[in-house]
Design brief:
Arc Repressor Mutant, subunit A; Four Helix Bundle (Hemerythrin (Met), subunit A); 3 strands; globular
Length: 220
């Protein structure tokens, strides 16, 4: 990758996107150290720009700072994964059962548009857009509750698991499974079967979790 953008904001955004993809594809593994000097050379960037990018990755839950080691790719223990996914299960189940049925036609049209955008990103194997459009689909789904505080709580819990979920984005089978399940979610909304939708949403979050646990948990 050549020199990053001219403005600090643009440069930070480009470095964050590049490092996220490296982690998704497994070029950087959990617990692996990220060296500032290497990033400065790789991106032809100033140190303060690289540090800002690492801080943004830390905010997203992908990177953490260790005393005397600097920035490392965040590792989640099996116990941490269990706790985070218990929180997500509680919030997602509560939200799906509170969707307003029958669905507002405008909201439903926007939900379907979000699904199509995600499907297009999957077809293009554009992993950056896959993450963005997947987030947009689920945000739009839970907006159907009409409860902005519940939506905010879900956003925060999702952000905490970004460092777990992102590793599965490089797996085509998981991407296509997510795409099919989004369509089934829309079907459940249209039929008004919120109980089944809640079960589907809970199952939907498991494959990425399982991928992470099988690949990384228990590794010393």
């Amino acid at each position: 990758m050549g020199p990053v953008g001219t403005s600090t904001v643009e440069a930070v955004s480009q470095i964050v996107a590049a490092l996220e993809q490296d982690i998704i594809f497994g070029f950087f593994l959990p617990k692996q150290r990220l060296y500032e000097d290497e990033m400065i050379l790789r991106f032809s960037a100033k140190r303060h720009v690289v540090r800002a990018a690492l801080q943004e990755l830390e905010r997203k839950g992908i990177v953490e700072r260790k005393p005397s080691r600097g920035a490392v790719v965040r590792y989640f223990s099996r116990e941490e994964v269990d706790s985070l996914y218990e929180l997500r299960r509680i919030l997602h189940e509560a939200a799906t059962k509170r969707l307003r049925i029958p669905a507002d036609p405008d909201w439903l049209a926007e939900l379907k548009a979000a699904q199509r955008a995600h499907a297009a990103a999957v077809a293009e194997r554009n992993l950056g857009n896959v993450f963005v459009t997947n987030t947009a689909f689920h945000r739009k789904l839970f907006e159907g509750t009409g409860n902005p505080y519940l939506c905010e709580a879900i956003e925060l819990s999702n952000a905490k698991t970004h460092g777990i979920r992102s590793h599965g984005l490089g797996q085509p089978a998981l991407l296509h499974l997510a795409e099919r399940e989004h369509l089934r979610m829309i079907e459940r909304v249209e039929s008004g079967d919120l109980a089944d939708l809640a079960e589907l949403c809970i199952r939907h979050m498991q494959p990425a979790r399982t991928f992470y646990e099988e690949k990384y948990c228990g590794v010393a």
